[in-house]
Amino acid sequence: MNLFVGKPDDIAEEEFIQMAQSNINRWHGLLQATGGELNTKKCFWSNFSLQYDQYGNLSIRTKTDTDPQLYLTNHDGTRETLKTTKPGDGIHHLGIHISMNGNSIAKTQVLFKWCKLFQKVYAHCPFTRKEAEIVYTMIFLPMITYLFPATTMSAADLEKAQSMTMPTIISHMGYNHNMPKAVIYAPSTYGGLGIKHLHNKQGLQKVLQVIKHLCTHTTLGELLHITIQAHQLQAGLPKPILENTIPIPWLPNRWITNMQEFLHSINGSIILEKPWTIPQLHQHDHHLMKDFLNANLPTKDLQTLNNCRMYLQATTLAELTTHDETHLLDNGLQCRKDSLSLKTTSQLLLKWPNQPNHSKKCGICGPKLSNPYTQSQGQ
């Protein structure tokens, strides 16, 4: 049994844990009534308790010994504590290791293990050249790339995994293992060997999943559509992020951003039928994050500025100025503890995520943000 717990904002944590415990008791009781039993060794629960650091960056809070626990009640009345997963633990689901905080450490370790296994297989089995090619195509590739649609492994990790097996596999196919990579990974129609590049394979699998589910309007397609819109809102850029695939360093490395980075590496894009963006409010308006990106600020500063923008619930410069566009709003540039969000001065049409006020580290009122606009305002 895998139980993932995400507490709504309007419910107290104690009440929510009681609800989760009640549901576990009900489910366990139904299984016992039909002769079944939950195995505590295979049961765990994950509590997505979120926290923000001093810069406004979101993360999953590390569990402590004082956190509430969930239990299974046995026939004799004794209770067994359910295992609680840590944010970085890779949990095995249908061949894929998924962690709460999105890291790919467990998935990468499993990939390295499989590559070492195939390295031994090719080293000890007397394959003919044709057999070596068949094993690569029919066994190695399906086993390695099975999890690619759901993974976010980096190009460096995939390159390392590929280097463990490719020299041995290519040698058994009858080719020189020192052959240039451009020839190894080039399509056979262009005179190459047609060996699949793992990073490109992972990115391609993601692109295919997006196109398939968005075009067929599946339930997953609707979820992907909402997720893309949420990333667009958090990016704060004028053009669709899957169409104009410039690097967005202030976004965390997640499934969508990982695919966006792949599209950028191949100079590709996904053009949606009706992409959603936040337009300019007038002809000479500016998108804040685009200007910050063009200013070549460090990634840490871009993350802080974007967090402050998310708290202010603003995307363009016009949302931070007075109606006559001659002055910057005080509550738009000052993220003090007593400052209010822009929703107090205008009616918002979007549902923004909850972003706290990190006034001590806010950069909206600092020189890195205000100089480009205050200088133009004084001219």
Give a topology summary.
Blueprint: E1 2-5, H1 13-33, E2 44-47, E3 50-52, E4 58-60, E5 71-73, E6 79-81, E7 83-84, E8 91-93, E9 96-98, H2 105-124, H3 129-145, H4 155-172, H5 181-184, H6 198-216, H7 219-235, H8 255-265, H9 288-294, H10 299-312, H11 330-333, H12 367-378
Parallel strand pairs: 1-2, 2-7
Antiparallel strand pairs: 3-4, 5-6, 8-9
Helix pairs in contact: 2-3, 2-4, 6-7, 6-8, 9-10
Task: Please provide a written account of the structure.
- 43% of the residues lie in helices and 7% in strands.
- The protein has 379 residues and is mostly helical.
- It has 4 domains: 2-87, no CATH class; 105-196, no CATH class; 203-265, no CATH class; 288-378, no CATH class.
- The strands form 4 sheets. Strands 1-2-7 form a 3-stranded parallel beta sheet, with no helix packed on it. A two-stranded antiparallel sheet has the order 3-4.
Quick overview:
By secondary structure, the protein is mostly helical.
Overall, the morphology is flat
Number of strands: 9
Number of domains: 4
Cα-atom radius of gyration: 26 Å
Helix count equals 12
What structural class is derived from the secondary structure elements? mainly alpha
Largest β-sheet summary:
3 strands, parallel
- Proportion in β-strands: 5-15%
What order do the helices and strands follow?
EHEEEEEEEEHHHHHHHHHHH
The N- and C-terminal alpha carbons lie at a distance of 65 Å
In which order are the strands of the major sheet placed? 1-2-7
Oligomer: single chain
Mean pLDDT: 83
Low-confidence segments, given as residue ranges, are 375-379
Helix content: 40-55%
